[in-house]
Amino acid sequence: MATITTFVRRHPVAACFGLTFVLSWGGALPAIGSAGGMRGTTPASDPRFAYALTMLAGPSLTGQLLTALVHGGTGLRECARHLLCPTPPRSLESAQVAVQPHV
After folding, report:
1. CB neighbours (10 Å) of residue 15?
2. Which of 9, 21, 78, 103, by CA, is between 20 and 30 Å from 44?
């Protein structure tokens, strides 16, 4: 486990892209590679459509897994806190500066 954590800390971009690719395509392979392939693009046309939808979960799961791996429970709690209660701008002036066009 320590070697995986060390690799992720040394090569975060490669770990993120690699894990996202594996999770996304790993969920779709049962649907695509099975006999006959996917015949349609809607849930009604092919019951294996749900497997293809797992491709959408790859990036989200990667983010959660890498956060848990590198930062542990503290990192996951911090992510949940920001999702449930986003931090407001530091002041009203900083929010106004961000939306005013440059003249």
Report:
1. 20
2. 21
What pLDDT sits at residue 29?
74
Q: What is the DSSP string of 49-91?
A: HHHHHGGGGHHHHHHHHHHHHHHHHHHHHHHHHHHHSPPPPS-
- What would the pLDDT profile of 20-31 be if each residue is shown by its tens digit? 998 888 877 766
CB 48 within 8 A of CB 72: no
Neighbour count for residue 58 (Cβ, 10 Å):
19
CA atoms within 13 A on the CB side of 84: 6
d(CA 91, CA 77): 25
Identify whether the C-beta of residue 78 lies closer than 8 Å to the C-beta of residue 71.
yes
